[in-house]
Amino acid sequence: MAPAPTPAPDLGIDPDDLPDGLVVADETGRVICFNAAASRITAVPGAQALGRPLDQALPLEDLKGHRWWALTDPYGGLATRRGQPERNLLLPGGREVLVSARYLRTRPTGPVHRVVVSLRGTEARRRTERSNAELIATVAHELRSPLTSVKGFTATLLAKWERFTDDQKRLMLETVDADAGRIKRLIAELLDISRIDSGRLEVRRQRVDIAAAVGRHVHAHTTGGQAPDRFFVRIRSGLPDLWADPDKIDQILGNLLENAVRHGGGTVTIDVAPTTATTDGEKGTEVIVSDEGPGIPEESMGRVFTRFWRGSKRGGTGLGLYIVKGVVEAHGGTITVGRGPRGGAEFRFILPVGTPAHLV
Asked: What's the pTM?
């Protein structure tokens, strides 16, 4: 004989503890549960809703103005119907709410015993939609300029190739190459944001020499025209082995140093030191990038790692630090921003050792 099923545990949850609105109607269509979240969302007191017919306690209309309960007819509709998927509906006064319903029957095609309705506000979804719309608009705007340049120069070269000198051709091709690189970076940022938001950002861990990585980025800036004395690098002794994604470490350092050079001032200091990365004592590496510029206003500190935050009006998409935070956290690390010892901005990130399990 098959073992008897284990009885479900009594979870002891009060409907008022639920984060979403819960409305339950009995077999007669009268409300027997109207939790606190439902009262907050609908602005209807629970005591006023209890005992009333469902269509009166919760008068809903679709976006075309049709009464929802009359359309769906939970008690008199098809006997095989199990509920209604989530959709946008309107409360009295035109307030939008997300509603889904489940029909409970005593037997598969029997009469409806309970109608369970879930209510959620649309504010979080609207914020996400606005954020995504802003992202698309920002990237489209940033892509337009380099694409126009690439299209213009290639069309000109194809139409009038013989009229240009070799030096002129080289200059135009170098411009096309630079703008194509900018487009590639923008697309990479967009893909990174998609992966961060969906939790699918992959980290391919290898042993990383963080001191050498810092040196490469500083060298790139000095060969690009920055004075060597603009940078001060301090590497502390006793750094633990760091297992991380080298490309993403370059992405973090590249963004932080670019911000310090472009938006900061004075000497850019990079400190690399061993530290404790987690509360359970795991070793890690701490990197601090600070400058001597005007710094970040106190009221802006909480928005630095959000999408589209810009420290100045000197270009950029405002996505770099959002991506940096996502990459650091994908490694199990943390990143903070504050004011440096000489008044400028100070970014501090800590990465745990991250040793792969098969090497522990």
From this structure: 0.63
